């Protein structure tokens, strides 16, 4: 199990959010990808922030109440996101996961986003390896 790395369970098919994206498009991406948060990147895929469902809910409530129009992701994203390396052992990541910790981690290599790993993906892999569970391939990247 120690040989399992983040690269074994990360998703690289989910498109990150670009700066300047309207929050309604961010919400659409979250819902379509069944994920609780997404990294925010620049044109070169450098990680600039992270936006979660919680960020969107609060911002949409405020903007709707005050009739301020559609905010953009830059207005609500967390600007100091935690990221991890694709080489990080799954066991080490699993020990970091806990209450109050992110449910989705951006995976960065050479300063650029290469994927995301979710708590659900880690749980599935640990169950498959440790318990011998036969699980179908993840179709959802939810937390």
Automatic annotation (TrEMBL):
Q: Does the keyword Nucleotide-binding apply?
A: no
Which keywords does this Swiss-Prot/TrEMBL entry list?
CBS domain, Repeat
| UniProt entry tagged with the keyword Disulfide bond | no
Occurrences of domain CBS (ranges)? 10-68, 77-135
Q: Which domain of life is it from?
A: Bacteria
What CDD domains does the entry give? CBS_pair_bac (cd04629)
Any idea what this protein is called?
A: CBS domain-containing protein
Q: What is the lineage of its organism?
A: Bacteria, Pseudomonadati, Pseudomonadota, Gammaproteobacteria, Pseudomonadales
């Amino acid at each position: 199990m120690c040989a399992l790395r983040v690269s074994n369970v990360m998703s690289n098919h989910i498109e990150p959010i670009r700066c300047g994206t309207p929050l309604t498009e961010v919400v659409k991406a979250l819902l379509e990808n069944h994920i609780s948060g997404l990294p925010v990147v620049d044109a070169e895929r450098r990680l600039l922030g992270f936006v979660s469902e919680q960020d969107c809910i609060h911002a949409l409530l405020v903007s709707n109440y005050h009739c301020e129009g559609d905010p953009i992701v830059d207005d609500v994203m967390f600007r100091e996101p935690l990221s991890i390396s694709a080489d990080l052992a799954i066991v080490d990541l699993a020990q970091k996961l806990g209450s109050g910790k992110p449910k989705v981690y951006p995976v960065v290599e050479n300063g650029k986003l290469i994927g995301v790993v979710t708590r659900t993906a880690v749980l599935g892999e640990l169950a498959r390896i440790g318990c011998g569970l036969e699980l179908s391939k993840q179709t959802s990247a939810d937390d």
